Amino acid sequence: MGTAVSELKTEFLESSAEFKVESLPLSHVSVEIGHLYMEDFTGGARAIQRTFAAAAPWIRAARVPRAIGCGKESVRLSTCFLIDDYFTRFSSPADVIPMVLAAAEREELEIDYVARESACADAREISPANLTLGSLVTEPVPGTTGGRPPLIETGWLTNGQRSPGPSPGEAMAKRRPWQPPRENARRRHSIFIDVELWDDDKGRRTWSCAMLAAVWQLMRLGFLRDQGRAVVTPQDWTEPQFPDRWDDLPPVTRLNPRATAFAAYTTLSVLSPRFLAVELSVRTILSQFACDKNILAEADERARRDAMQLPTELVDRIRYVFAGPGDTDPA
Q1: Terminus of the chain with fewer CB atoms < 10 Å: N or C?
Q2: At what angle do helices 209-221 and 276-286 cross, to 10 degrees?
Q3: What is the DSSP letter of 114?
Q4: pLDDT class for 43, splitting at 50, 70, 90?
Q5: Domain regions of the chain by residue span
């Protein structure tokens, strides 16, 4: 399935006097074959197969070089599937993964990589979510004085200016009239987004679905590093059976030994329409992500040599197809 993977080498790019940045192998496109909640898995293999049936035509389309902006005759395409083991632990890899693979095979699809959503929060001694948070640079709001609490305290990220609250003046003072929120980069009218990145319960932080989905996109684009080193490296699973505990499964597992690289110049996610709000939030988050300039420059240069046309903005390297069942988010 797909073309042969290019030679994999570990190289390091100069980033600062303290560390060098590891260079990752890259496919042309990383295709996410759907995303399911725990409730979806309770529907059994047939429910999963319906998701893959909706995704299959779009995956075939992504193999057409012009469809993804590639000037070559064939593309390096890798497929991935994200399993939500973060918000609810259910069943086991030993039960779920074979069911998923069988459903994909019935639709003539091959899943190259399977990832755990919990790894976006904690990837064994590294927190990709914390790394992402540390690289968010919030947009300055025109006409404000910086009085809003910082992102690190509130856990909320916006793409503009919130409606101002009532002033704490004297009780009989004239009230300030209501003002609407305003998007910073609006086109005449605003589409204002306010995204919750996490909440806290007795000191325990729980990352939001939107934040984890943003981290997931960064992993697939190969933009996350911890002191220069790759945050997640896919591992082969060589045992005859999958484990009984999710924590015993690598953050990202390579299922297909012939697969091209997990990370890619661009991503395509084939999702149910119920994820529209989440993915709009992802774009809001990533529009304020400050990528390491050396990582970005290297990806751009390699893309040019690889006949791949890349948009300048990071968020424009992420593509979506919203297809299949449009059930309301069960949450």
Answers
A1: C
A2: 60
A3: E
A4: confident
A5: 26-134+200-322
Residues 6+ apart with CB under 8 A from 8: 25, 261
Residue 131: helix, strand or coil by DSSP?
Answer: helix
Rounded distance between C-alpha atoms, residue 271 and residue 219, angstroms: 18
Picking from 102, 36, 75, the residue whose alpha carbon sits closest to that of residue 261 is: 75
User: What's the Cα-to-Cα distance from 176 to each of 141, 159, 165, 181, rounded to whole Å?
Assistant: 20, 24, 9, 15
Percentage of residues in the chain having pLDDT higher than 70? 84
Cβ pair 158, 121 in contact under 8 A? no
- How many other CB atoms are found less than 10 A from the CB of residue 164? 11
Residues 265, 310: contact at Cβ < 8 Å?
A: yes
For residue 13, the tally of other CB atoms under 10 A from its CB is 15
- Name residue 89's amino acid: R
Token digits of residue 180? 């609407």
Check: pTM over 0.85? Answer yes or no.
yes
* 316, amino acid identity: D
Question: How many residues would you count in the chain?
Answer: 331
What backbone torsions phi and psi does residue 150 show, to the nearest 5 degrees?
-65, 155
Tell me which of 89 and 312 has the higher pLDDT: 312
Question: Cα 268–2–28 angle (5° rounding)?
Answer: 40
Mean pLDDT, the chain, as a whole number? 86
Looking at residue 13, its pLDDT comes to 54
Say how far apart CA 197 and CA 151 lie, in whole Å. 9
Query: What token pair was written down for 28?
Result: 């042309």
10: pLDDT strictly greater than 70: no
CA distances 277 to 18, 197, 281, 329, Å, are: 39, 14, 6, 10
- Burial (CB count within 10 angstroms: exposed 0-12, middle 13-18, buried 19+), residue 42: exposed
- DSSP letter assigned to residue 273: G
Residue 317 in this model has a pLDDT that exceeds 50: yes
- What is the C-alpha to C-alpha distance for residues 45 and 54, in angstroms, rounded to an integer? 14
